[in-house]
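stage 2 :: seqdesign
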């Protein structure tokens, strides 16, 4: 791996804010969402990965000296893949939830991937909002069901919130059919039919 400071285009004496600003500028320039249906998409993805790894290396080097990330991290102990949100993960690990949420809120809805919903759920979970956290984790699982990090988080939130995961429900998304809402509507209609004895409505259930 190239020198992380060289990747971000900053000196080793750069302040934390300078490093953060350099990372954000490069991320805006090379984010894969900017290269959809573009022949340079693969190159942009590789560049974004290099930028993420460089920023992650600098942040952890400054926080823990020259040591690698420890297993005590809330994410790195179980997360081994690349990430589009190293800064958010870092802020969450530091307990700086408001700053993490601010960055997440700045991501356009159409660009929010499974990792975004996982990290959003993590912030909500840390704040004790288990129902909302569960909904966000469930969306991450629906978008990427093979990711164990997302599923473990959803299971933990489910135990706290007491909710039931439904893979057909469009968690955290607008539009589409919500199976739970449909079931609730049918149950209510059935109750109304029983109350009216089938005389006050013309639905199939009353006939």
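stage 2 :: out
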């Amino acid at each position: 791996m190239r020198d992380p400071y060289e990747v971000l285009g900053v000196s080793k004496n750069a302040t934390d804010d300078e490093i953060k600003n350099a990372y954000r500028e490069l991320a805006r320039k090379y984010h894969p969402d900017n290269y959809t249906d573009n022949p340079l998409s693969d190159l942009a993805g590789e560049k974004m990965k290099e930028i993420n790894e460089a920023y992650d290396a600098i942040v952890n080097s400054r926080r823990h000296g020259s040591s690698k990330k420890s297993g005590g991290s809330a994410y790195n102990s179980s997360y081994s893949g690349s990430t589009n949100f190293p800064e958010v993960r870092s802020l969450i690990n530091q307990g700086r939830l408001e700053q993490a949420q601010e960055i997440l809120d700045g991501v356009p809805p159409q660009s929010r991937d499974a990792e975004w919903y996982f990290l959003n759920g993590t912030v909500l979970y840390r704040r004790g909002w288990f129902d909302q956290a569960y909904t966000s984790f469930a969306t991450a699982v629906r978008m990427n069901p093979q990711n164990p990090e997302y599923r473990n988080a959803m299971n933990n939130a489910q135990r706290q919130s007491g909710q039931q995961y439904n893979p057909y429900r469009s968690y955290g998304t607008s539009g589409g059919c919500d199976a739970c809402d449909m079931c609730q509507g049918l149950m209510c209609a059935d109750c109304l039919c029983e109350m009216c004895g089938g005389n006050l409505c013309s639905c199939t259930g009353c006939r």
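stage 3 :: structure notes
- The radius of gyration is 22 Å.
- Residues 41-64 form the longest helix (24 residues).
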